[in-house]
From TrEMBL:
One of its GO terms (biological process) is carbohydrate metabolic process. It comes from Candidatus Ruania gallistercoris. InterPro entries: Glyco_hydro/deAcase_b/a-brl, YdjC-like. One of its GO terms (molecular function) is hydrolase activity. Residues 196-218 are annotated as: Disordered. This is ChbG/HpnK family deacetylase. Keywords: Carbohydrate metabolism, Hydrolase, Magnesium, Metal-binding. Its cofactor is Mg(2+). SUPFAM superfamilies: Glycoside hydrolase/deacetylase (SSF88713).
Length: 261
């Protein structure tokens, strides 16, 4: 990677379950993570934030139910997002980024109940608190013409508001055996501006990391999340010429919502 490229990978869904939180904490302590996104409404949020405090940066993983936003005006939606940011601040933590819990909140998928989701309001809140926002400047593949237009409008709005966005969002994790080849091709995928990666949240087991969307026995990973997260090529190196300019964060999605094309 070149000095003008940053790799951001953020641990999502923190607070949702003890299994998720323990796995994220273990990876953070091992030096594999530098940030995590917290579901501040979740029962385990306060405990998880306290455990991660001082180890990784924290962000707000906005969670809104369809009933919260269906028919809601802009002011109401912005207030709901603001309340979640303020909840983290009230708990004694300073968020550094903002992202959305589901595709529907981005206005995508069959479960979307609001045109454009809550992206416009999220950008407004992110600008107010000077937070990064997870919306790739490069449009994802597979968008309809209408979705592409909405994406372009959102990216433009973020630019006007001074909100930092990643250049591209990587959500497809290779099989474990293909991780080395994936890493070899990563520089060609990245563009100057930053990259965020999305992988499934790990659960710490007796002799390694398993995967589980919540409490219960861990299952063996079908894709190379753990191999990718812990690969030496992505581990911090004190002698790295990029120093603090290399932002190494891993997005850990607990919902198992990764879909290979």
């Amino acid at each position: 990677m070149t000095a003008d490229v940053r790799l951001r990978v953020v641990a999502d869904d923190v607070g949702q379950s003890t299994a998720i939180d323990d796995g994220v904490l273990a990876l953070a302590r091992a030096g594999h993570l530098t940030a995590a996104s917290v579901l501040v409404r979740a029962p385990g949020a306060l405990r998880a934030m306290a455990a991660l405090d001082g180890i990784v940066e924290l962000g707000v993983h906005v969670q809104l139910a369809p009933g919260d936003i269906a028919g809601a005006d802009t002011d109401r939606v912005a207030a709901l997002i603001t309340a979640q940011v303020e909840a983290m601040i009230a708990a004694g933590h300073s968020p550094v980024h903002l992202d959305l819990h589901t595709a529907a909140l981005y206005g995508l998928g069959e479960q979307a109940v609001r045109s454009g989701g809550v992206v416009a309001e999220a950008i407004t809140v992110a600008a107010h608190y000077r937070l990064r926002f997870r919306l790739p400047r490069r449009a994802p593949a597979g968008l309809t013409a209408a979705q592409t237009a909405a994406h372009e409008q959102a990216v433009a709005a973020a630019a006007v508001a001074g909100v930092t966005l990643p250049e591209v969002l990587v959500t497809e994790v290779p099989d474990a055996a293909a991780v080395p080849a994936f890493l070899a091709g990563l520089p060609g995928l990245l563009r100057a501006g930053g990259t965020e990666g999305a992988i499934t949240s790990p659960q710490r087991t007796g002799d390694g990391y398993g995967l589980s969307p919540g409490p219960g026995p861990a299952v063996e990973p079908e894709v190379g999340e753990v191999e990718l997260v812990t690969h030496p090529a992505l581990r911090a190196d004190p002698g790295d010429s990029l120093g603090r300019e290399r932002v190494r964060q891993y997005t850990l999605l607990a919902s198992g919502g990764l879909h290979h094309r």
